Amino acid sequence: MDSKDTEAEIHPLKHEDVKAQENHENSVERRVGSKQSSQLSRLSRWRTAAFFISLFLCLIIVFAFSFVIPCPERPVSERTWFRNYDDAVAYPFLAIEDVNKDKVQDVIFVFKASNGSSSFNRSCLDEGLPSPCAFVAAVSGTNGSVLWERAAAEDVEWVECGINQLGGAQAPSCLIVGKPVALTAIDQQTGEVQWRQSSDFGANYTVLTPLSVIPDVDSDGVQDLIIFIATENKIKTFIHSGKNGEQIGSPESLNVDGNARYIRFVPKPDSYYFLFYTANSVYGYSLKNLYRAATGMEIKLPKLQQEAQWEKSIDHTTHHLPLPSSGDIRYLVRIPSGSGENILIVQSEMTMLVNGKNLQNLWTLNTSGVISEPLLGYYKPDVLGIVLESDIGPNRKKVMIVEAGSGAIQWDLKLNSRAHSPEPATLSTADHRSTFLFWGEYQIPGNETSSKAALQKLYLFHPSYTNVLLELRNSTDQIIAFDAALFERSRHACYVLLRGPQPGQEPGFVSLMKRKLKEDVSESRVIWLSQVAVDSEQYVRERLYRMRFHSRD
Description:
The chain is of the alpha+beta class. The chain has four domains: 79-198, Thrombin, subunit H (Beta Barrel); 215-322, no CATH class; 327-370, no CATH class; 371-553. The protein has helices spanning 3-10, 12-68, 287-295, 308-313, 517-522, 537-545, and strands at 80-97, 106-113, 133-139, 146-153, 155-163, 173-179, 182-187, 193-198, 205-207, 212-214, 224-231, 234-240, 247-254, 261-268, 271-277, 282-286, 329-337, 340-347, 350-354, 361-366, 375-380, 383-393, 396-403, 409-416, 425-428, 434-440, 456-461, 468-475, 479-488, 491-499, 508-516, 525-528.
């Protein structure tokens, strides 16, 4: 008999138990499996529900942002706007700043009249000033509406805007140097006065411009101001607190002729020098020396340093700085370089670039009678150039673009010009070059005349067309100030014209105009500088119209 059957016969109950056990285990496994299947089914349903709920919420959010919640409205800038004043005179001052924080640049200017604009209906008497008086006004870059106006002084010597921390304010501010002497800090965003301080600059003084902001020398947490005043045969230094306008120390006379001008020069970070130049000499003073002379104390800023090479070069008795020049200096200009700044020295017969660290001559270029302060731009992509305007005869000038690194002339043009013609301007373009804007009157070679150039014309030049000029506009009005800027980042390049009588002339009609550059490009006259016309005039206009601008800051 088989052993299994024998075992079953001997232990019949045991065999039944084994079968029952097996049946029980199978039943348990089925129940567990069924339970797990049920749980997985419920989990799957929850996952499906969560997915559809998330999708539904996403659709609601998209719908809300697309149709229900309105997008912030972008300010629509008018192509051209005017702001006009009757019976007024205007000062040769323009500042382009974003006053109302709408990401569009605005215009700040100064005019003298008995009353402000009708928008604010303010008079000189409101500020306790005799009439007429000087008003500072901020005008919207989008449509020319007046953002604020302030009767600031009986007369104005100078205005400087875009000064940070002045009065401890978060927004930038304007500093007004008025006559009789008073310093007034105005919040650039609201036009409210932050502080006003009187000062004694002496008789027959002239403010050397631009004003200079210096580090916080009185340790009150706000950067300070240094003002240089020319009186007869000397120059005086005034240091004022940026927080409240109070004078720091006492005025100090410098060993510099009163006809000097100056620039601030930073040979290396935390090293500030002021270079004063007359026709025949250059003088150098460190900020440390100026502060010590005004207060009798050492400056409290440990990070502020003096540059060793400059201290060796400056004569500490006369403060004369031996730059390589032959006299008759007209301009000193700071030129950025890869390792800091260099100094451009413009003289009556030549222009030279001097290394800002060791004061060695880098290059020299023959130029005669430069008539405007040199301007920076880019003729080649990312290669810095210098724009020079020089006098070449009665009512004639030559515009040159010079490579800053080598002194090589990259482009030049001869124009008719008249006295007090507006200075040129540049705008950076997306191809890492610049658009150049300048005033004059171009005449075809062979037809030059020495006219009085009563008609002023604004020209545009871009290095993509080296033989093309665009004539943008004509003007017979007296232009007080001219500037060009990118009113919106990477778009909306414009220029601003301030026209009318100036202080000292009979009051009359004053006009401030903003004009979108592309509007003039589309209507411009194409001038071929050579007989070779590569493209059609319309193609040139369209290509330059499509040109994109960008900011380098």
